[in-house]
Every structure is written in structure tokens, then in C-alpha cells.
Design a protein that fits this description.
- By secondary structure, this protein is an all-alpha fold.
- It contains 14 helices and 2 strands; from the N terminus they run αααααααααααββααα.
- Bound molecules: the ligand C[C@H](NC(=O)[C@@H](N)CCCCN)C(=O)O.
- The ligand C[C@H](NC(=O)[C@@H](N)CCCCN)C(=O)O binds next to α1, α5, α12 and α13.
- It comes from Arenimonas fontis.
Length: 447
């Protein structure tokens, strides 16, 4: 929407832009916290509610199913009502979803809460992306995206850390979820502050044309190149591996490796913590050197042996890991090394993969390209927790039978090898005649 007389208005000041980034990112902090708040209560849900691993997998998939449905119309809602209102509305849905989950007394109600969360959380991510594009286009857009993602990951890490700083809440599975409702309510507060900031900016600053949101145009399916589809395929298998692994990780560290809940939470948090720092750095590095498809292939190669390493390598000596102001825990050296390596991959691949799409797809279809990629991501991510949950149940995984977790780890490994295959195909395509410059474009080059 263009603003009348916009030409006469100044662009927003840098301080105003960065304040917008802070509030939009705090809403994302709440969003990622609520999603990950379920992970540390998996063992309690099994003990206190008698849920099977298959049901835990279904809770995860309920989120993705809702996200899949709502992403089809989310772009329309954002275009129709504006990102400003959409952010507040979707953040409010997340608060409601968190409260429904915390108050649930049965599996269907908890599943309904996670379904509702998918309806709010994924379009909230899309709306925040649209807001950042609007305020930062032609300015520090990549850096703003990087910082936004880092603050979001801090939300994920904080949910893991709640096993330490909110340890007394973990006598039952509901209190940690009430805490997550409070955190998301604060996120809604941040969304409202963002709403006020943008309203105040109207008539004072020129914000440019509203950016293309991630609106899905299914006709575009036929128009993308092979390189785009290799990236989408990598995105699907990469996130279908990492996110479900995270969903089960705290419980897995407790049951299969005998860690205390606090230590398991600290260990699991190292994945997003590594990403908080490393994602923007990898982004800056790749902008300088190019070689994007090669980096995606390297990331996929590093990931390949990690799930088998946690399953079959000896644990090694215990090491004390301390997170200042949060807590500390003793974790086996092998697990620590694997999670740090996985954290590196979790930083490298997203830092390279999402921006790479912008080099491959025409500007006018970028919104559609991202929407389609997110949609495909949800499809894979729906299926994998169901499979892993079923495998854990089928092979009677538990503290008395840690080997029962091995089939799930083999499944992650199979997905990782597919990821490596797609990354390799992308690398070959990009080195050939039809390459889009993923290997060559750098900040110094003229494209
Ligand atoms: C940038 C990317 N985000 C996504 O993949 C989202 N569609 C889903 C995030 C859900 C986190 N609870 C990422 O986080 O790497």
C-alpha cells in the first residue's frame, strides 16, 4: 500500500528500524519458546499421562498439519489485513494455543492445542518476515534476518534451559507449559508494541511498498529450475531430521544416556545456542566467498554420521557444561561433541539455504518460492515424528532398552544421506552451464 505524499516523507531513522526489529523478534522469541516447551516434558507426558512415543509424534505432527493448511491462506490474510494486524492476531492465537495445551487434561485437547499453535506460529513467522522486508529492504536486510533468527533460537534455547531455571515446575507436565503461556503472552505484548510503533510511523516516515509476503501461487510450481527443487528437497529432509530430533532429544538423553533432566536440557540447548552465534557469522562468510552449494554439501556430509555416533560410540568421560545465569550439568564428551557439530550444521545450512533461493528465483516470484518451500518443509516434518515415534514404540525404546532408539537414529541417518544426495546434485547443477551463481556471487562481485 503506498502512502499519499510518500515522496515528501523521510525514510525511518536507523534507531526506529532497530526498535521495530527488537519487538518483532521478541514476538518470535515467544513463538519458538512455546513450540519447544513441549520437548522437556516428554518423559512426564509418558509417565503421568501414559502417552506412547507414537502419540508424542502425533502432537508434533498436529502442529505441522495446521501449519500446512494455514500457510495456503496465510499470505492472503497478511496481504488483506496487513502484516501489522496479522502479527498481533497470530501472536494472540499462539497465546491461546499455549493456554489450551497447558490446561489440557486429555490427549485430544493437547493435540488441539498444538494444532492451534501451528495455525498461529507458522503464519506469524511469515508475517514477521514480511515486516522485516518492509523496514529493511535496501538497508541491512540479511543482517536483520540473521539477528531475528538468532533471537528466535534464543527462545528455543530458553525452553531447554527452563529445565534448570524453572526446575521446580517440572514436578508435573503442565506447569512448564503454563510458563510457556506467560512467555508467549509477553511475546504478544511485544507484537502490540510493534503495532503501536508502526502506527506511529504512518504519516511520519515513508516505508515503501509493502513487500511481497510468502503468498503461495501454485501455478509457479512448474516454473522453477532444478536448482530450486534441489534446495527444497534439501530443506525438507534437513528440517525433517533436525526438528524431530530436537523434539525427542531431551527425553532421549534422559532415557538412553541416563542424563538428569537439567543436564539433558543444557545439552539440547547447545544446538540453538551454537546457531545463535554461528548463523550470522556463516552468513557473512558465505557472502564473501560464495560456494553456497558446496557449503550445503559439506554441512550435509558432516551431519551424516552424527546420529550413529550418539548411538554406537562410547560415551567418553563426563564433562561439566555451564551456561552462565542458567545452570550446569555433566554430559558425556561424545554427546557434547556430536551436539556441537550438529549445532554447526544447524547454523551453516539455514544461513546458506534460505538466502540462496533469492539468487535462483526471480524477485517477483520470491514470495511464492519461499511459501512453497515452507509448505514442502511441513510435509516432511509431519511424517518424520510419526515414524520415529512408531519406531521407538515398536522396538520398546526406554531406559531398560536403549538399543530400542537405534532404528529411529538409522532413520535420521537415511534422511541425512538423502540430504547429502540433493546437496551434491545442487552442487553439480550450479557448477555447470545452467548455474545461477550460487558458487560464484560474492559481495565483491557485481551481481
Ligand atoms: C528459518 C527456519 N524457520 C522455519 O523453518 C520455520 N518454518 C519453522 C520454525 C519452527 C521453529 N519452532 C529456521 O528456524 O531455521
Amino acid at each position: 500500500m503506498s502512502i499519499p505524499g510518500a515522496g515528501a516523507l523521510p525514510r525511518p531513522t536507523p534507531a526506529y528500524r532497530w526498535l521495530v526489529l527488537v519487538f518483532a523478534s521478541l514476538a518470535m522469541f515467544g513463538n519458538y519458546y512455546v513450540y519447544d516447551a513441549l520437548n522437556p516434558v516428554v518423559d512426564l507426558l509418558r509417565e503421568q499421562q501414559g502417552f506412547s512415543y507414537r502419540q508424542i509424534g502425533m502432537l508434533s505432527s498436529a502442529y505441522n498439519l495446521a501449519a500446512l493448511l494455514v500457510l495456503l491462506v496465510g499470505g492472503y490474510v497478511i496481504d488483506r489485513f496487513g502484516a501489522r494486524r496479522a502479527i498481533v492476531a497470530f501472536a494472540a492465537v499462539c497465546v491461546l494455543a499455549a493456554a489450551v495445551s497447558a490446561a489440557a487434561s486429555s490427549f485430544p485437547t493437547l493435540a488441539a492445542g498444538r494444532f492451534l499453535l501451528g495455525m498461529g506460529a507458522e503464519p506469524l513467522i511469515v508475517a514477521v518476515t514480511a515486516v522485516l522486508a518492509k523496514w529493511f529492504k535496501g538497508k541491512e536486510l540479511s543482517f536483520a534476518f540473521g539477528l531475528n533468527l538468532s533471537i528466535s533460537r534464543l527462545g528455543s534455547a530458553s525452553a531447554d534451559w527452563s529445565t534448570s531455571f524453572a526446575a521446580p515446575l517440572y514436578s508435573n507436565w503442565q506447569d512448564p507449559l503454563w510458563l510457556s503461556t506467560g512467555v508467549m503472552a509477553a511475546g504478544l505484548g511485544a507484537a502490540l508494541l510493534y503495532w503501536m510503533l508502526e502506527r506511529r510511523a504512518e504519516g511520519r516516515f515513508y516505508l515503501g511498498e509493502a513487500a511481497a509476503t510468502d503468498r503461495l501461487d501454485l501455478r509457479s510450481l512448474y516454473r522453477f529450475s532444478a536448482s530450486y527443487w534441489y534446495i527444497v528437497a534439501l530443506c525438507v529432509v534437513f528440517y525433517s531430521t533436525v526438528f524431530p530430533f530436537r523434539s525427542f532429544a531431551i527425553d532421549y538423553f534422559q532415557q538412553a544416556h541416563g542424563l538428569e533432566r537439567e543436564a539433558a536440557g543444557i545439552l539440547s540447548s547447545l544446538l540453538p545456542v551454537a546457531a545463535i552465534f554461528a548463523t550470522p557469522l556463516f552468513g557473512l562468510w558465505v557472502d564473501r566467498v560464495g560456494r553456497r552449494s558446496l557449503f550445503m554439501a559439506i554441512g550435509s556430509l558432516v551431519m551424516l554420521p552424527l546420529f550413529l555416533a550418539v548411538t554406537y560410540l562410547p560415551p567418553g568421560p563426563d564433562v561439566m557444561v555451564t551456561i552462565p545465569l542458567v545452570g550446569s550439568g555433566e554430559v558425556p564428551l561424545t554427546l557434547l561433541c556430536v551436539i556441537l557439530l550438529l549445532g554447526g550444521v544447524f547454523s551453516l545450512i539455514p544461513a546458506v539455504m534460505w538466502p540462496s533461493v533469492a539468487y535462483i528465483v526471480d524477485d517477483r516470484r520470491l514470495g511464492s518460492a519461499y511459501a512453497l518451500m515452507t509448505l514442502c518443509q511441513q510435509l516432511g516434518w509431519i511424517a518424520v515424528p510419526l515414524v520415529v515415534g512408531a519406531l521407538n514404540d515398536r522396538y520398546l525404546a526406554g531406559p531398560e532398552n536403549p538399543a530400542g532408539y537405534a532404528p529411529g537414529m538409522w532413520f535420521y541417518t537415511a534422511l541425512s544421506s538423502l540430504g547429502l544426495f540433493f546437496a551434491w546434485r545442487l552442487w553439480r547443477a550450479e557448477r555447470g552451464q545452467g548455474g545461477h551463481g550460487l558458487e560464484t556471487i560474492t559481495v565483491g562481485s557485481n551481481r
